[in-house]
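Records of this kind hold a single protein each, on a pair of labelled lines. Below, a sample record shows both lines together.
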Amino acid sequence: MFRILAIACLTALPATACETALLLAIDVSGSINGGDYAVQTEGLATALSDPEVAEALVKGQVALAVVQWSGLGEQALVAPWARMLDDAAVTRFAGSAATLPRAYKGSDTAVGDAVSFALGQFTPVADCTHRVIDISGDGQENAGFTDARARSEAVAAEVTINAIAIEAAGQAFPITSYYQRWVVTPGGFVVSARGVADYAETLRLKLLRELADPIG
């Protein structure tokens, strides 16, 4: 009798809860050429395949999804939510990320539209403790001009926005300053990549920071 009760208790234990739902929102506007796009997708796959990142993803039972965005009305969920329940799940997601087709090209940069679209994607992962939009881009908003409003919507929905600013070579950090001022939510953060070639390592470090402290 005791053995039956013990087995019942073991089988009734809940699965590890999802710590973070992390939506990666990638810029595919006109300023991103074909080579830049390939570097971004390969960089995403490389960052996710990093042993430290993979371990953190599985430990937190993280849910991942990828959105590509460009101009007004140009946003697409290109990789639907997947739960990183084990190493095999991380490997599958990283492999698919490396070959994602490009949804748009040659258009504007509507950051606010991208954020608003991303906010609408979290229903399937409502059980996750934290919800984070990880947006990356190499330009300031030049269409729609709804970035500040979208950020307010994120704050109201208790969704954190972090960002990767892809900067050109030089001393200035205009994209970083833009994301800090207009897009990132209180408690969120921006990291800077010097061109897309720096994207993979910047994303790797950013993911480790997000997964260690999802609210920045």
Summary: The mean pLDDT is 90. The chain has eight helices and six strands. The two ends are 49 Å apart (CA to CA).
